[in-house]
Design brief:
By secondary structure, this protein is mainly alpha-helical. The protein has helices at about 1-20, 40, 50-70, 75-95, 115-135, 140-165. The longest helix is centred in the C-terminal third of the chain and has 26 residues, at about 140-165.
Length: about 170
């Protein structure tokens, strides 16, 4: 149990450092941003309790808000995906005829690449939609928010996949 907590804490520090020092500076125009830190929330153990998941998501979002100078936007978006995540895991497990309790971790290593991409993309789009709609705070910028959501979601998904392949695929099933 302690090894799992330590490895998740180190993963959080890795995602946070990568976001702050690399991904945060990768901005293409006004439409494409990478919020790679979301990968940490996506890959948390499915056995984590819902209340603990919500607390972790809030703290992760709050830390990102401190670095991004955004008043609670990332915390709100992180809590939203943390709320939806258990239901999506249940849905994907049922769709693949897998018992939810058999899922040890959510990663490329444990899931099929297509399953991981679908799972990640849905939560990333939800996160980014929340971030950009809260950031705009008006329906006048709806089209721009949707464009930012689409392009940034693709870029973030590619970033999360790269991080997964580079750092989390060393062990085989």
């Amino acid at each position: 149990m302690n090894n799992k907590i330590i490895s998740q804490f180190l993963a959080f520090l890795g995602y946070l450092a990568f976001h702050i020092f690399v991904a945060r500076k990768l901005v293409f125009g006004q439409w494409v941003f990478s919020y790679v830190y979301v990968g940490f929330l996506l890959t948390l153990s499915p056995s984590i309790s819902k209340s603990r998941l919500l607390i972790v998501a809030f703290l992760v979002g709050l830390i990102i808000d401190l670095f991004e100078y955004s008043p609670g936007i990332h915390a709100s978006a992180c809590v939203l995906i943390a709320f939806v995540r258990p239901y999506l895991v249940s849905l994907l497990a049922a769709q693949n005829n897998i018992d939810e309790d058999e899922i040890r971790e959510i990663s490329i290593r444990e899931m099929s690449i297509s399953g991981f991409i679908i799972y990640s993309f849905l939560l990333i789009v939800l996160h980014h939609l929340a971030v950009f709609l809260l950031e705009a705070w008006t329906s006048k910028l709806l089209w721009l928010s949707l464009q930012k959501t689409f392009f940034s979601s693709i870029f973030t998904l590619v970033s999360v996949l790269l991080v997964q392949y580079l750092f989390f695929t060393s062990q085989k099933r």
